[in-house]
Amino acid sequence: MLIIVGAVIVFASTLGGFMLAGGHPAVLLHVSEFVVILGIAGGVLVIATPLHVIMEIIHKTKEALAGKTAGKKDFFEMLKLLYEIFMIGRRNGLIALEEHVMNPKASAVFQKYPSVLGNHERLEFLCNGLKPVIDGKIKPDQLEELMSSELKAKENELAHPVHAMQMVGDSLPAIGIVAAVLGIINTMGAISEGPEAVGEKVAAALTGTLLGIFIAYGFVNPLAGRITSNNASELQVLRCIMQAVAGFAKGLAPLTAVEIARRTLDHSVQPGGEELETALKGLTGK
To answer: Model pTM?
Structure first.
């Protein structure tokens, strides 16, 4: 929603200032300039970017427009799930976790937390972290390094769409110049038509430069920034999982492992300590 509000502000400020100066918005509507600029920008993206990254750009853009990002409620649910899982392992032995981790969709515990169960990346990262603990194939001190490596790979993967969008955003002003030069070439061929025709074509050419800069710094680069922010939020969820699972694997009590994870969170999404502890103890009746 905020993205739409921001876009309205950008448009209103630009057109409003232009009209206050005596301009008419209709003179900015040159379809040929839009075709050149958006077409070249799209071609640059296709040339420089693999298909799966392009699909990820579309997916991340939809998420950004929908305002989907991890909030306080998501972290609260994640911490509660981690606590329940850890308590099962502590009370019934690590082998008791196998049925939940190997088939989380059928787990009564996981089904209580749809924000985790419905998010493939969070679910996979959690289960991948718990499997070595259950199997006993890795030392507790090595688990955090393993999960950290997976987290780093995920961070690099999430950065690909942002880099592609920033590349297009940085190219757009130059693409606008290309459109302007094409317009000037067209103008040179119309000098014999008189000053009015020449002035109209020069205005169209200058519109190309304007559009390139306007689209780059008004929309593409800010959208890339929003996606970066959303990615950071998702990585914070995964980092929270890593800290809790690593702490539990080292023998920390479930409540302590969850508390360590809670303290790694930003204050904007961090549940209160007493609030969380009360909720966790209510899960086990203690």
So the answer is: 0.85
